[in-house]
Queue: 2 jobs
Job 1
Amino acid sequence: MLTPSEDTNRRMLRARDAMDRRFAEPLDVPALAGIAHLSVSQFARVFKETFGETPHRYLQRRRVERAMTLLRQTDRPVTEVAWDVGFASLGTFSRTFSTIVGCSPSEFRATHEPVHVPSCFIAAWTRPREGTVVSEKRDLPGGP
Amino acid sequence: MTNHIKTLRITTLHVLDQEEALSFYCGVLGFEVKDDVDMGFMRWLTIALPTDPEHLVLLSVPGAPMHDQETAAQVRDLLTKGALGGIFLTSDDIHATYDAVVAAGAEITQEVVEQPYGTDFGARDPFGNSVRVSQPAEVSSEEIQRQYDAARA
């Protein structure tokens, strides 16, 4: 029923869904590769061919997207947000967040109000795009 | 309103196999077949929830004569990558629904989570379509926004 490439798509989607489901846990590449029925060495390459970015990069964006939501929607301290979304160190979290979003977690929180739309939409649409830094500076009070 | 449109009647969902789609949407989620007509060039297959019989879902297989071969392949590619959207459903017992979906072996994309607007989870149909199920909280949008504002105060 499925062509080989569609079967690959489906298996890679299963692995990506597992990342979406378990993003806060340490990334176990052999387990993800197992879900996709691929060797560890093939997994990252085929994932990138399918979705346009490496599994590691996808997971980073997934975690940063969740962090953006927690910063926006809750008053949890930044350190706890970092932990909640799967970063083991605050330094790595802040560096990764700033690289992807273009401002620090605290700066992001200060300039973004909570919104009420279903969380899966926020998750899908605020996930920063591959290879771009999202400019949030224009939202700062008083402009850049 | 001056255009007189009244209801959302049919939503199309691309599936790769109509029998497998029926197993999932009817066997697992509780839809029922409304129309099943072999028109020769295509099988017109619609389903609906018994509690929402006026809203039909057309289970459509990409391919000829609707699509040329290359277009059908592109649709199938996007579908199996999970890029074609999906459906949102509501339940009046989200935990029972979740248990049934899990027991049927469906793939879960998000475990049951309490949200300000209700409780929800995510799953995939056998082909890659997203299926979200929510039990809406009995609060207004204004109340949800007030809760967010209070949490941030």
Job 2
Amino acid sequence: MRTSTRALALSGAAVLLLIVAALSLTLGNRETEPERMLAVLMGEGDQFMEQVLAARWPRTVMGAAVGAALAVSGILIQSVMRNPLGEPGLLGVTMGASASVVTASAVFGAAGGFAVVGAAMPGAVLAVTAVYLLGSRSGSRSVIPLILAGAVVSAVLGAYVQAMILARPEVFDSYRHWVVGSLAGARFETLWAVLPALLLGLLLALASVGGLNALALGEDLAAGLGVKVRRLRLMALAAATLLAAAATAAVGPIAFVGLAVPHLVRALVGSDHRWQLPLALILGAALLLVADVAARIVARPEELMVGVVTAFVGAPFLLAAVRKGKVRG
Amino acid sequence: MSTLDTTAVGTTAAGTTTTEATAERPIHGARVFRWGERVRLPWRVRSGWVLAGLTALIVGLGLATLAWGPMGAGPRDLLAALRGEAEATTLFVLERLRGPRVLAAVGAGVALGLAGALFQCVTRNPLGSPDVIGLGAGAGAGVAVSTLLWPGMVPAPVGAVLGAGLAVAVVWWSTGMGFASPARVIITGIGVFAMATAVTHYVVAVALRDSAHDLAAYLVGSLGTRNMGHVLIIAVSLAVLIPLVFLISRRLLLMDLGDELAQSLGARATATRTWAILLAVLLAAAAVSVAGPVAFVALTAPHIARKLTRAPGPNLTVSAAVGAFILVSADLLVQQMPGLDGLPVGIVTAGAGGLYLGYLLLLEFRRTSGQT
């Protein structure tokens, strides 16, 4: 894999992200003409369009941040577990965060901002731990018990979240969309609230890049190269959990972005994590924005939740990965 | 089968699953009920008692469903209604509100229990169930499309069958090896489940403007607002399908011995498997068209049935009874239990069934971590 090809992939992805972001600002669930929107962007235009644009800025920025976070989280999980099917959603991180947020809201009333992030973290960590305990089997390299445990934990937590939301409509009226992940109500305040967690996760991810490259050679070799394998694993998983939980806290559980993007990334730049991470960051952002634009358009005049679109588009990646025989068992 | 056999869910080939099941010969210890040329039904005394007990429980729960709460109609009202002397309000409760609900719960539970038993027997995999391969979700999406998106194109049960069939076909194709590998089936099932759920979301968003309660009913299954039409659907489906299941039940019992042995004893393995899967799809689709995609009933019913009877083989009848028991009791909970009242029944089965699955996994974890 030559550096020029990788650089091309990276810059191509960046251009794609810019185009998609522009689309995200101009397209909506109403047939607003793009010309009018362009006029507003040029600094002239009508009040109404300015209002619309003001609502779409945070939505676009938030979508990019969440998509990037989930994609990087997926890369980390897949590398650490050496499992092409690792994904924050499949491991219960997202449902754990959701259940935790819903519980906090039911007890303390609908809180916003920092409180939500604070509420999301313990649930995410607990869920991952539960999945790990249920799914880790001594001597088994098979990914299945883990995935199965993730599915079970997610199912139970999902039932709990649904029950809470239906039982307390007065608390959860605004959470309806949040259950499947939606960018509809995105606000800058929420973004500022989750930003510290996102940045911390990203820093930890960058710090583990070298170690992950060594780990790809095998545990023994990595240890021989001076990598503290256990610490690296913990750091990378902590980063992955932070990123996914913060993203979930902001917009709700969004499935399959963390699964699909790493596959694309590896196809484009190969196995070097120094290239994988930045490309995942950009592609994840672009992918989620594409999904969000689609979510606004396909069910006009209603809006879909972006999580629904990612599930429909992302799940085939899972099926393709299985059909190609990437699953042992 | 006492624990979840994850050796079958891993690297080794899935065989019959426990030492218990292989220790006793399936036909041994069972009496055979013969009726004409084709029908030979193996049955056991213990299974008979279990079945009787479950039936009594289901009847009791059904009567409780009718009687409890402010609108309830007790046994006396019921007898009066049967004699045609009941008051109008009581009749309304019995014929329009709770009667259909109980009957739909029993019918759907029986169908799901049978579908689960058939599937697990054929895939030789304790997790090979309509829930895991996304069949229920597919059928649910089919119901949503046929009732909300294009009403009047096809009736809901047909939509359910089409959706379920499509889900099974996608799993079959995606694994690249049919249902042979439990691991692949589970993972593709997760994908198919997600896609089917996404379709349901889309349809509900377009047609119902995304009202939370309707959405939940379509996504997790609900027995609210059932009428005699629903009962008719499930009754007719069961009347047609159950005899067909019994026709292949003896061959299914032989399938437990492994393909080659079954083949030599005259059970055409491939044909039996195809029939069993087809019947399971139809049964599950029938259940989904009256109750929605209720999770984990089909998965847990055969497990519980096996625990109760301690008998090898598919345990078809007891699985059906357990399925009915699960659904009737869950529905009674969401009708009368404070804190759960008004929730769709599928939320309870998903939560409780998921916890049970987690418990099975935990047993497995304990068992394997005990060994070094």
